[in-house]
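hey team, just a heads up i'm posting the complex here instead of the shared drive bc the drive is being weird again. everything in one block, sequence lines first with there labels, then the predicted structure for the whole assembly after. its two chains so it's a bit long, scroll down
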Amino acid sequence: MSKGIVSKDEDYSQWFNDLVIKADLAEYSPVRGCMIIKPYGYSIWEKIQAVLDKMFKDTGHSNAYFPLFIPKSFFSKEASHVEGFAKECAVVTHYRLKNDGEGNIIVDDEAKLEEELIVRPTSETIIWHTYKGWIQSYRDLPILVNQWANVVRWEMRTRLFLRTSEFLWQEGHTAHATSEEAVAEAEQMLEVYADFVENWLAVPVVKGRKTPNERFAGALDTYCIEALMQDGKALQAGTSHFLGQNFAKAFDVKFSDKENKLDYVWATSWGVSTRLMGALIMAHSDDAGLVLPPMLAPIQVVVVPIYKHDDELENITNYVKGLTAELKAKGISIKFDNRDTQRPGFKFAEYELKGVPLRVAIGSRDMQNGTVELARRDTRTKETVEQAGLADRIEGLLEEIQQNIFKKALDFREENTTEVNDWEEFKRLLDEKPGFLAAHWDGTPETEQRIKEETKATIRCIPLNNKQEEGKCILTGKPSKERVLFARAY
Amino acid sequence: MSKGIVSKDEDYSQWFNDLVIKADLAEYSPVRGCMIIKPYGYSIWEKIQAVLDKMFKDTGHSNAYFPLFIPKSFFSKEASHVEGFAKECAVVTHYRLKNDGEGNIIVDDEAKLEEELIVRPTSETIIWHTYKGWIQSYRDLPILVNQWANVVRWEMRTRLFLRTSEFLWQEGHTAHATSEEAVAEAEQMLEVYADFVENWLAVPVVKGRKTPNERFAGALDTYCIEALMQDGKALQAGTSHFLGQNFAKAFDVKFSDKENKLDYVWATSWGVSTRLMGALIMAHSDDAGLVLPPMLAPIQVVVVPIYKHDDELENITNYVKGLTAELKAKGISIKFDNRDTQRPGFKFAEYELKGVPLRVAIGSRDMQNGTVELARRDTRTKETVEQAGLADRIEGLLEEIQQNIFKKALDFREENTTEVNDWEEFKRLLDEKPGFLAAHWDGTPETEQRIKEETKATIRCIPLNNKQEEGKCILTGKPSKERVLFARAY
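-- predicted structure starts here --
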């Protein structure tokens, strides 16, 4: 059966796009660069949300909701933030439509806003404006707030999940009495993200710091987790920013400490988005479709009956009822696909496409023999196994699959992370064996910029706990004390 | 202690506003008519979301996500929808800001959109545009999709939670092969809403149909649930619409049935919003603050220790640890407020203000006697009870409080629902004893409109399973076969 997906070796980018569409994850909308997240795709996002939300709450955070619109003037208040965000934004200028009398809907020019509103590209400005009213003394600190929301950044070149004009995300915004506490918060949230991405998405990440060039606009320090996709390009999967007192100063947010001394508040912000869906898809999937880690798969086990007569189906159905109860008790989600409008082969292909980790097929002979056919999505292998003890076996296999998927991605990353000491070699590898290149850099933004211009590779991060060693900058030959990770990136 | 809340008898509207702000539920933002939902308010909304989301899934629905922006032209496609929604909307006309060179951020006039985008006031148009691609045959039906999202309707007069320019809601959009199935869906979702509002929010509702005048723009039939607030004004708490084939025709969505015959698809939509927070607050609360039904209270039980010395606190803390474990096992949320920065009286007032259903106070003498002081928020009564069996007692009390709050609201509604047969009496009651007025109406939009103009009362609904009886229209004296419910409304 052709699934209408191009091979990933042939055209990785098209393969990704085909996969997202054919697996019913998302599609483009009539609005430029905005996507529709379809029910199957959204059910994965809901799982991501639920797990992260619990992690945020377990670390003391609460959710809140701030307005979609931000007054234009707010963007002028924090100088470096301006440069980063007051650019490609959707701007609301009017608040009314009217009928022109000939049946056409037109914008009512009499309903022009005095000050234009920006659809939030991120919410630091409106949140810090609000925090001014919430914070007077050290007793009001820390504020540990997160928001689940949609944001808009008008993108010229868009890709489903990876770069869309509107996307869904969470943005944490915290306020602290000391610099140390804010740094600890930013570091803690980086750990939360790394934990989530490695243990749930099964995608290994490098934890690190961004260079000043690549920092979030307004941050003193940006921590990030970087993952490697199967085409050797890097993907930034989450960021956590230490914002210092920049936003507190821009919005005049001071607090009185225990000694009644006034000081500006210290801030962090941190976020992950529907981009994680892109990482999830690109890190594991193959030409047959999605490969989902069991811990985030909306359907973990699918059962397909194979039968000719109704009494055979009845027999199988009775067995599946028992299995379903056993799996539900273990917290494992199972779907029994007994549609009579589709043949088993069609169903096999469909669930393969959708990345269901385990498939159980049961025919009449299986029922006589007390067996089932059990197929793994990750290895594309199948075997005939006993019905006795099947639920336990499935439970064990799901764990094994989760680990195997992670291991495979980790092996891939290790094979595609290379220490490079020579500029020609650096350029050659980027074309011939793309991946993470660990190279020395002289620490200047100018060199970083030149490397980017010549190779399209950027410094993804300076890894945390980086080994210190003497070396020479890959481009300039100037002295350097540590390697940084370069890659072309999404 | 003054909580800064005006008495509700003195100024109901101000009381509501004070309450929302002082109880940390929400506040106005610098953006006209948009609110900030604070962590405590948002935690109630999260509970509402979680319960409703499960109810939707239990009835077969999945979540998805559609774009925030809708092309302007979409609003011209469904004629009656235009009249209802293509009015007070936020309009995006530009997609870029720039620096004017003097440090000011201005809108870049070169980045003007070819077609203006409307920030969704509701999503029927973009969703039916999308469904065209999803539906070919009866096998693709039904589509049972829900979306949790923010929407914007530019309101001139706003009130926190009740009427804000941006609000949060869910909107279900379903597609069916037959009219009967769509009607059954619309009715089912009305039942879901009624069940939720009565059994979780503890607010009794009247289920009914809207008159054609009051229908959703584009609907053939609008079902609604109507609740009565403590000031005698009605509040529409949820609506479910049978849309017929209007949107399918507007967006040309046809399906082939089993006989391969083409027909337009049948539709419903249904929604509830953060307005439910307004209903929750206004239906139960009093001059001392919020009264929350235990099933939606973020904190169900708060424990306040009363002590002078640290060893007393240690003693109390040990006891509370055991109680906490017992309550957690029962799924009851408990907070131990051992802050040493506030006195017990301050804490009592704070939790009263925040509507925590049960308060446990424990002092040293209590510890000696094996007792605690247990205070109910709904009745504002307290008693000294044994520590032995306290967890069971709390569990029982929470159920009792939930029922008591509902009963109180139901009694109030019954006392304030009056059958009226005389026009002067009708007008007098609206001023002197506002509530639901059950009166005959001649069935014409003209009469309905005249009554609205003269009294500001609207027909809230024609109750389902309404008693049929001969009568005369309250205004025109023309014959009528059933009473409808009038009220002034939020």
